[in-house]
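One record is given unchanged without comment:
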Amino acid sequence: MGKKTISDEKKVVIKSLVDSGKSYREVQEIIPVSLGYIGKIIKEFEANKELINYYKTNKVDILLKTQMDNLALQGAIRASITKKDVKNWTPDQKARWYDATGRDFGIKFDKSRLEEGESTENVSVLYRHILDIQRRKIQEREQEQNDDVVEAEIVKENAENR
């Protein structure tokens, strides 16, 4: 029997997952290959400029495909869970499931938007922070002026009492 090989696209997905901070074990759960093979693929990227260029050129599409595959997998998992299963879960298990699926989707969506250069700046939050900073600076200046006035009055009183 010959050795099994995987496509360049899957190698790029593995590289992308490792680059996104996933451990080799987490990658192995997504793409069933040995930990050693994942390490070998990462080394191939370092040595293979062509594959690196493919990765750089197609990174957004690859991440999007990975996201879609992951969403399909999540959908299949959700479909396999019965109402009876959920009924037997503790409130904590339910909360963790909801939190994990929502966070996972949000992270992947944000990452794809960042990679596409379409990240939305939350201008209203930034604007509010800027106004708060300006307000605090004005209050600090007014307090300093009040402190100066009070200090001047104390000095004047002390001079008059001498």
Q: What stands out?
A: The mean pLDDT is 80. Helices lie at 8-19, 24-30, 35-47, 49-80, 83-88, 91-115, 123-161. Residues 8-120 form one domain. The chain has two domains: 8-120, 121-162.
